[in-house]
Amino acid sequence: MSNSSWNKIYTPIILALVFIVGMSVGRHYLSGNGLHSSPTEDKLDRILQYIVSDYVDTVSLKTVEKAAIIEMMEQLDPHSSYIEPEEYHAFVDPLLGNFEGIGIQFRMIRDSLTVMLPLAGGPSEKAGIKAGDKIVMVDGDTIAAKAMNTDDIVKMIKGERGSIVELKVYRNRIDSLLSFDITRDVIPTFSLDAHFMINDSLAYIKISKFSATTIEEFDDAMKELLEKGMKELILDLRGNSGGYLRAAIAMSDTFLDEGNLIVYTKGKNRPEKKYFASGHGDFEKQKLMVLINENSASASEIVAGAIQDNDRGQIMGRRSFGKGLVQEQMDFHDGSAVRLTVARYYTPTGRSIQRSYKNGTEAYYADHYHRMLNNKENDSIVIPDSLIYTTPKGKTVYGGGGIMPDVILPLDTSFNYYLYNRLIRSSIISEKAIDYANLWYKKLETYHTVQEFYKNFNANSSVYMQIIKKAKELDIKPKKKEIEDSKVLVMGLFKAELARLLFGENAYYYVYLQEDKIFKKAVVLMEEEE
C-alpha cells in the first residue's frame, strides 16, 4: 500500500483514536480516583465501536492504536512518550540497577563478539572469561563472522537467573576453542564509571546516569576516597542522561547544609513540592567542582543547579541540555507503557531547567545542536533581564533552559573530529589495543599500577600508522592534516584502552582524562584556589 493510500485510509481513524485512546487513558487514571466518565467519553467509545463494526476496510486496531498513541504523545512535549512492549526492558532496565545475564562489556570487532571487560564478581569473571576473548558460539550457534546486531546478540546471552549458557571462546595463543558453561545471574549495571585520587587531596568521580543504585555506589566511592585523604572533589556529570529524582536529591544532599533547597517541582495538576538538604552529608564544606556539557540532562542538571544556586561550588564546561520535565509512567497489561510529563523542575533560585519546545520536537533538538556549537565565553553571552537570577551570595546565574556554567569552555570547533570519531565508531582503536596486548603481554605485565603504566608506557609511532592503515582499508579516508592533528587524541585513547585491559575501568578514565582539556583545566583551577 502506498503512503498516500495509507494516509487516506488511516489518518481519519488515527485522529479519532487519538481522542479515544487519550480519553481511555484518562478514564483509567480518573477511575482510580473515584471519578466517573462523562457523556463525551461514552460518545468516543461509540465511535470506536462504530469503526470496528462498520468501517469499509479491515482495520488492525492494534496497529492504528499504536500509531494514535505515538501521535498523541508527540503533540504534547519532546519527553512524553509511548514505550512498546518489545522496547520496555531497554528503556527501564538501565535505571533499575541490574539485569540478568553473564556479566560482560563487549564490542563487535571484526564481526566477532569481543569481551572488553568481564564485570567484577560476575558469572563470566568467575568462570574465567578474560578481556580480549572472542565469543564465537552461543549454545551451539555460531555467531562469529555473521551480520548480527547488538540487540540480537544480547538476546542470546541474556537470560533468566540460574539458566546456563554454553560459550565457545577463542583466546589468543591457544589453538583450540575454550568451552565455558556459565550460569546466568543478576548483574549490577553500574552508574558510577570511575573514582580515583588525582593527587594526595584531590579526587575525581564520574557518574553516567542516576539509577536505583547510584547513591549506594556514590556513597561507597565517597567513603573510600575520604579514607584516602580526599579534601577536594571534581564531580563529572558530562554526558549524564539523568534518571531518578531521588538519586539526584540524595547526591545533592551530600554537599549541602541542612535546610538548603535542592529543587522544587510543580505542574498544573501537581502542587508545588520542595526538596531540602538534611544536613547529614559527608562533604558539606570541602571544595567542589562539577563538570557538565550539552549532554548533561535532567537529574544531572538538578545536582548542578543545586550546587550553583546555593553557592556551594563551581560549575565548569558547557551549557547543559535543558531537560526539566517530570515524567510519570503508566504501565499496561500488554507490557507497554506511557511516560507522561506532569510537572517541571526548578532550581533553588526559581530557574526552569526546561528549554522551550514551542516550535516542535525537531526544532527542539536542532536548538540543542546549535547551542553546543555556539557556546561562548561568559563575557560574550547576552541574556534577557527576565532570565537573570541572583544567588544568596550575589552571584549572577542564568535561566532560559539548562544550567549555564560559571566557567564556560566552548567546544573547540577548529579541530576536525572526523577521523577520531570514525575510528571510535568502527572500534579500530579498541581492536588495535587488544591485538597489541596479546602481542606484547610480557612487556605489559611489568607494569604493576596504572600510574606506573601512564608514566612509563609509550607505544611506537608505527602503531598509529597501523591504525590509519586499517582505517583506510575500511574506506575511512582522512586527509594528511587530519592524520597529523588527530595523533595525540587517538594515541591517548589507545593508551587508555590498554589501561582498561590491564587494570580495569578506573584505569581507563585515569589515562583517558590526561588528554581531556576540561578535566585538565578543572585540576588547574582547583590547585590555583588552594
Description:
The protein has four domains: 73 residues; 91 residues, PDZ domain (Pdz3 Domain, Roll), CATH 2.30.42; 220 residues, 2-enoyl-CoA Hydratase, Chain A, domain 1, CATH 3.90.226; 109 residues, no CATH class. It is built from 18 helices and 21 strands. It is globular. The N and C termini lie far apart (70 Å).
Show the helix and strand layout.
Elements: H1 3-31, H2 39-54, H3 61-74, E1 81-83, H4 88-96, E2 98-101, E3 104-109, E4 112-118, H5 123-127, E5 134-138, E6 141-142, H6 150-157, E7 164-170, E8 178-183, E9 185-188, E10 192-197, E11 202-207, H7 214-227, E12 232-236, H8 245-255, E13 261-267, E14 270-276, E15 287-292, H9 299-309, E16 314-317, E17 325-331, E18 337-346, H10 361-374, E19 388-390, E20 396-398, E21 407-408, H11 418-425, H12 428-439, H13 441-444, H14 450-456, H15 461-473, H16 480-503, H17 505-512, H18 517-529
Parallel strand pairs: 11-12, 12-15, 15-16, 16-21
Antiparallel strand pairs: 1-18, 2-9, 3-4, 4-5, 5-6, 5-7, 7-8, 10-11, 13-14, 13-18, 17-18, 19-20
CATH 2nd-level architecture of the largest domain: Alpha-Beta Complex
Number of E strands: 21
Q: Would you give the CATH topology of the largest domain? A: 2-enoyl-CoA Hydratase, Chain A, domain 1
Portion in strands: 15-25%
Q: What would you report as the Rg, rounded to the nearest angstrom? A: 26 Å
Q: So what's the overall shape?
A: globular
Q: How many structural domains can be distinguished in the coordinates? A: 4
